[in-house]
Amino acid sequence: MKFHLIPRTLYLLALLLPAYLSPAFSQSQPSFVLPDVLTTNGGKKITNTTQWRLRRKELLELFSSQMYGRSPARPAAMTFKVFDNN
């Protein structure tokens, strides 16, 4: 018996499609809205370069606190000693 790719694919699609269309699947997807780049955290619109420089600092702070994180500071007692020069 020879299997055809298209009927098998349709069969699998018919089996899996209801799972993707179910409310449980759509609720499991995170919903979020990215902030407007040209609006400050206070809600003011950016209209000139001076305001943009301030907004840029806000965005960099947002990225470092929410996305990338910060590196811990070097411990005060940490020292280094060269023991080999090859």
Structure description:
This protein is an all-alpha fold and 86 residues long. Helix content is 50%, strand content 0%. The chain has 3 helices and no strands. The chain has helices spanning 5-21, 23-28, 49-68. It is flat, with a radius of gyration of 27 Å. The termini are far apart. The model has no long low-confidence stretch (mean pLDDT 77).
Cα-atom radius of gyration:
27 Å
- Let me know the number of strands: 0
Overall geometry comes to: flat
Uncertain regions: pLDDT < 50 for 5+ in a row?
none
User: Which structural class fits the helix and strand makeup?
Assistant: mainly alpha
Topology order in helix (H) and strand (E) letters: HHH
* Proportion of helical residues: 40-55%
Largest sheet: none
Q: Mean pLDDT, rounded to whole units?
A: 77
The proportion of strand residues reads: under 5%
Terminal-residue CA separation: 70 Å
How many H/I helices? 3
Fold blueprint:
Blueprint (H helix, E strand, L loop, with lengths): L4 H17 L1 H6 L20 H20 L18
Concise structural overview:
With 86 residues, this protein is mainly α.
